[in-house]
């Protein structure tokens, strides 16, 4: 029951976010033009000014949706018998393991939102200030700190599973130690710049984001029969991201 309600609410909020994004972006068009944040569509013959950095508006809608969604997946622990959530040490013994797990997810959720806020700020600063490449390497790494710190405190597992073709050399798993955190930071830098490098072609950036998010959503839905809790957690972010990006894609085409 509690698994179905959050997804239903999440989808409903995401659909609302889609129409809200479609509504607010045109209303802020003149504000961006007055601020000088615009370009010209070189794919068309018209010389019409096109506002840039409007992705910050869809990102703000995404953040509002995910903030409003916070009480829903954890509502049972806010309003139910586990009234002391997230202070799991005060909970009765028979609820300990459930509240223990959900308290960690609650912290992870907030840490993810903090990292996303940092990334949104970076993206907007790049459009306004035209950051140099070295800044684009440093700032995403700093934005990963909330996630990496929470992961270190909660799990601190630095072991990775080796792909089948390499297991004869490295075995089934390999402990990377501190290199694991460096690897995760580098992955974030790569992902942000892999999207950002496509800027300038109509809807290509956000279109790639749509393809990636839809792929993750499909994978999560397929794998729900296994570790449903983790895949639901992923869907809580991916569904709003898909719908708000879809609105931006429609306006950016």
From TrEMBL:
UniProt xrefs under PANTHER family: UDP-N-ACETYLGLUCOSAMINE--DOLICHYL-PHOSPHATE N-ACETYLGLUCOSAMINEPHOSPHOTRANSFERASE (PTHR10571:SF0)
Residues that span the membrane, as ranges: 6-25, 54-75, 95-125, 137-155, 178-199, 206-225, 231-249
Entry GO terms, CC: endoplasmic reticulum membrane
Gene source species: Darwinula stevensoni
Family in the record: Belongs to the glycosyltransferase 4 family.
InterPro entries linked to this entry: Glycosyl_transferase_4, GPT
Name of the protein this chain belongs to: UDP-N-acetylglucosamine--dolichyl-phosphate N-acetylglucosaminephosphotransferase
CDD domains membership: GT_GPT_euk (cd06855)
Catalytic reactions on record: a di-trans,poly-cis-dolichyl phosphate + UDP-N-acetyl-alpha-D-glucosamine = an N-acetyl-alpha-D-glucosaminyl-diphospho-di-trans,poly-cis-dolichol + UMP
GO MF: glycosyltransferase activity; metal ion binding; UDP-N-acetylglucosamine-dolichyl-phosphate N-acetylglucosaminephosphotransferase activity
